[in-house]
Amino acid sequence: MDFTQFIRTIPDYPKPGIMFRDITTLISHPEGLSASVEALVSHYVPQNIDIVAGIEARGFIIGGAIAQRLGTGFIPVRKQGKLPWKTIGEDYELEYGMDRLEIHEDAIGAGARVLLIDDLIATGGTALAAATLIDRAGGMVVSAGFLVDLPELGGAGKLEDRDIPVHVLCAFDGE
Ligand code: AMP
Q: Does residue 20 lie in a domain region?
């Protein structure tokens, strides 16, 4: 499947200059969700993943399905203030301003092999903050998987610089 054909591009959303890559058209297609999930699962089956961490919100959809197929548990990496128990948090930079991701402090067993999942990697700020949180919680991010890469923004390279291999299903030029 050519995944790019099923992803809708919305110019100038949420701000001028951004080409928003909308995966809702991929996952609502009859085969889109299962083809995406199966393509990532087949890559990760041999990697002895203990637990999948998905980044709010689109990473929950893909990450939850992957965890179910791998037979692992799932950890939600959430925006600030959403989790009910004690959390640890990590601030990260957005294009304008800062944001914060949180996980429950007891979400990950010591030394657990964690697969990090989100829909798209751009600058890598979000995924790097999530990886830092998982490290701080005692886990080991053994790989990161995305439906879409925007290679010109360099995020995948930043994860690989931190020894986190990146696997993506497709890529788009530009921002
Ligand atoms: P970044 O931290 O720059 O790697 O941005 C990744 C996060 O922002 C992911 O959770 C994406 O869902 C979202 N995102 C960033 N840029 C785009 C884009 N062009 N289209 C869709 N989502 C995006």
A: no
Choose one of 126, 128, 162 to mutate for the ligand 1 pocket test, by most ligand atoms within 8 angstroms of C-beta.
126
The domain of 153 spans 47-171
90 CB less than 6 Å from ligand 1?
A: no
Is 53 within 8 Å of 75 (Cβ atoms)? yes
Domain total of the chain: 1
- Residue pLDDT, tens place only, 109-142: 999 999 999 999 999 999 999 999 999 999 999 9
**Omega into 131 within 30° of 0, i.e. cis?**
no
Question: How far is it, in rounded angstroms, from Cα 1 to Cα 91?
Answer: 36
Report the alpha-carbon distance of residue 23 to residue 39 in Å, rounded.
15
Is residue 70 in some structural domain? yes
53 belongs to a structural domain:
yes
